[in-house]
Amino acid sequence: MLFGKEHVKRYQETDGAEGHDWNGTVTLLLTTVGRKSGQERTTPLIYQEDGDDYVVVASKGGADDHPLWYKNLEADPQVKVQVRGDRFTARARTATPEERPRLWKKMVAVWPDYDEYTRKTDREIPVVVLERV
């Protein structure tokens, strides 16, 4: 089971032939710029398409704090995305309160554990929309 740095490396080397399909779902690579380090950080994340956009969830397994990649994109919403061999720049934004329920349902359909994660934390787990620029 790939995840973490090895997942990123294999995904990049194979244009997602290894790493895109993961544990019965699909992943993309999200690259943010570290808000403290200024260095690029790449994270594999479960995603779904929503029209021309991609949707990911900042769950961190239901931890009480947001994942670092989410804090990074809050500081700088310009990100890089790789879906299979398609690499592009995107603008990341947190889903609006109006669109969040629909997008949450879409994400839970492919990763039911997201609902369980909400029971582990008091924070609202952000749903993030990646809009190609």
Give a verbal description of the structure:
This protein is of the alpha+beta class. The protein has one domain (5-132): Pnp Oxidase, Chain A, CATH 2.30.110. 28% of the residues lie in helices and 35% in strands. It has helices spanning 5-14, 68-75, 100-110, 113-120, and strands at residues 21-22, 25-33, 40-46, 48-50, 53-57, 78-83, 86-94, 127-132. Strands 1, 2, 3, 4, 5, 6, 7 and 8 form an 8-stranded antiparallel β-sheet that branches. The longest helix is centred in the C-terminal third of the chain and has 11 residues, at 100-110. It is globular. The N and C termini lie far apart (32 Å).
Using DSSP, what is the number of strands?
Answer: 8
CATH superfamily: Electron Transport, Fmn-binding Protein, Chain A
Mean pLDDT across all amino acids: 96
**What is the CATH third-level topology name?**
Pnp Oxidase, Chain A
The helix content is: 25-40%
Biggest sheet record: 8 strands, antiparallel
Oligomer: single chain
> How many H/I helices?
4
Kindly give the count of domains. 1
Structural class, please? Answer: alpha+beta
What coarse outline follows from CA principal-axis ratios?
globular
Give the second-level CATH assignment, the architecture: Roll
Which stretches are poorly predicted, pLDDT < 50 over at least 5 residues? none
Our Rg estimate from Cα atoms comes to 14 Å
Top CATH class? Mainly Beta
Alpha-carbon distance between the two ends: 32 Å
Strand content: 35-45%
Order of helix and strand elements from N to C terminus? HEEEEEHEEHHE
